[in-house]
Amino acid sequence: MKNANLNLDLKSLLPQLKKVWALVVRHAIFIALVIVLLVYVLFVWQINKLASAGPSDEDQTTAQAKASVPRIDKNAIQQIQNLEKTNTQVQALFDQARNNPFQE
Predict the structure, then answer these.
(1) Where exactly are the structural domains of the chain?
(2) What value, to the nearest 5°, has the Cα angle with vertex 71 and ends 69 and 77?
(3) 63 Cβ partners below 8 Å, 6+ apart?
(4) Does the pLDDT value for residue 1 go beyond 50?
């Protein structure tokens, strides 16, 4: 391996920077389009990754624990049915609601 002379002289570095800057300026539109395209691809990839992600096992068990099925007491149902049978006005309201449930 050769010994490289690492003289960082500003006078020799400045012309090289000017060449690189001229190259960048000449191809600025192409560079900007490539950057925009890369950002667009990154967004599409992130959206695809998030859209295909499912809930974790912990989230599923938490949701199942929170979703409790309501229970209706059979005695309460019998009391409501007995009250319906004894009161004619309530019976008429129930019949009317059964025939047209969307009537107010």
Answers:
(1) 11-51, 75-104
(2) 145
(3) 55
(4) no
pLDDT tens for 46-76 read 999 999 888 888 888 888 878 777 788 899 8
Give the number of other CB atoms < 10 A from CB of residue 94: 14
Please provide the distance, in angstroms rounded to a whole number, between the alpha carbons at the two ends of the chain: 94
Q: φ, ψ for residue 20 (rounded to 5)?
A: -65, -40
Got the DSSP string for 38-52? HHHHHHHHHHHHHHT
pTM for the predicted model, two decimal places: 0.41
Q: Which of 42, 58, 62, 59 is nearest to 50 (CA)?
A: 42
The answer to whether 73 touches 66, Cβ cutoff 8 Å, is no
Amino acid letter, 5 = N
Q: What band does 96 get if pLDDT is binned at 50, 70 and 90?
A: confident
Amino acid at 6: L
